[in-house]
Design brief:
The complex is a heterodimer of chains A (about 120) and B (about 240). Chain A has about 120 residues and is an all-alpha fold. Chain A is built from six helices and no strands. By secondary structure, chain B is mainly alpha-helical. The chains are: A mainly alpha (about 120), B mainly alpha (about 240).
């Protein structure tokens, strides 16, 4: 568990350092995540301490979001002023995007399986 | 007895807000499990419904609350790095449908952002609202850390993320039925792509294959949007 946490913090730290050093616009933890992914791909396996820490962290992930998400109480004015635009965008946008993506990948998979059979 | 000292302690210690926040989430988990893990009764949604009224009634400045629970917020960083592991484990699924996945990832990812922005523009929404809408299909931890960098408001962006997740889970079965979606891999990938973790929770109800493709989609779209969005916005 400790080894796993240390690994994650180390990759996050290296990610943040890359952002500062190379003046990147990408958040540090994302760089850390990509570096860890590359590390795992090169190593060709994970290790149990990492597995344990990751499953613990991801299990409680929604909890870690609550502090930042509660900031919505400072945004009540914006939301009530633009409620109609926001609701329309979320409702229609999500419906269309889900329909578009599902149909697109379904057609592409069908086509691929057909060429495999012939 | 020193009542004043007690009151002074209770109103200033971060412990009170830590206990309330963790309790709200715990209640969220209990309700979610009691409901038979209904994708629409996510623990985070229940926790929201408990926390927001408490914060408003307590009339505590948000900054003070945030500082009290900053130890919880800190864990978002390592948790984001941790997303590499499920992505690594699901990455081998890419090989089976490489082109369909890559094409849908980029076209679907672009479509979800542009359709939402187009509708906001139609109704003259503010720039901040539009920026906060760009991460609506991205998993919450990536949204929060990306939102700050692109000039969006993290909490507003988070609200949009949660609602997008719920709507995707709500519309999913209906859309798959009217469009006659055949493959579970396609259903799962679309759910993870548009509705992140809540989409995965819905995909779990379809099949294991759908769930794996949903997890893959969530990881991929999170990385791609987090990497490309700040660059694209930097050019505008």
């Amino acid at each position: 568990m400790l080894h796993g946490m240390l690994t994650l913090l180390l990759f996050q730290f290296v990610g943040e350092c890359c952002v500062k050093l190379f003046v990147l616009k990408i958040p540090g933890p994302i760089i850390g995540m990509v570096l860890l992914l590359l590390f795992l791909l090169l190593r060709k396996s994970s290790f149990s301490a990492l597995d344990v820490t990751v499953s613990w962290l991801l299990r409680y992930l929604p909890l870690f979001i609550i502090p930042a998400a509660s900031g919505i109480i400072t945004q009540i004015d914006t939301i009530s002023n633009e409620a109609f635009a926001i609701l329309s965008s979320l409702l229609i946008g999500t419906f269309l995007a889900l329909a578009f993506s599902a149909k697109l990948i379904d057609v592409l998979i069908s086509r691929k399986e057909k060429t495999h059979e012939s | 007895m020193n009542l004043d000292a007690l009151i002074a302690y209770v109103t200033t210690t971060p412990l009170v807000w830590l206990i309330i926040t963790i309790s709200a989430y715990k209640i969220g988990i209990l309700v979610y499990e009691k409901s038979g893990k209904n994708a629409l009764l996510q623990p985070i949604v229940i926790a929201y419904m408990i926390m927001l009224p408490i914060l408003i009634l307590a009339n505590i400045p948000y900054k003070q609350y945030f500082e009290s629970v900053s130890i919880i917020h800190f864990l978002l960083g390592p948790a984001t790095v941790a997303l590499a592991l499920p992505l690594y484990k699901n990455l081998k699924l890419i090989r089976s449908y490489f082109m369909p996945i890559v094409v849908t990832l980029f076209l679907g990812g672009t479509f979800t952002i542009l359709s939402a922005l187009g509708i906001l523009r139609l109704f003259d929404a503010s720039t901040t609202t539009m920026l906060s809408m760009t991460t609506k299909s991205v998993t919450a931890p990536i949204t929060i850390i990306t939102a700050q960098d692109i000039g969006a408001i993290p909490s507003l962006a988070m609200g949009f993320v949660v609602i997008t997740g719920l709507l995707g889970a709500l519309f999913g079965s209906f859309i798959f039925k009217i469009l006659r979606i055949k493959h579970d891999a396609a259903k799962g990938f679309a759910l993870g792509l548009i509705s992140h973790a809540i989409g995965i929770a819905r995909a779990v109800e379809i099949s294991d294959k759908a769930a794996a493709f949903a997890a893959l989609a969530m990881g991929l779209v999170g990385v791609v949007i987090a990497v490309l969005l700040p660059i694209v916005i930097g050019f505008l």
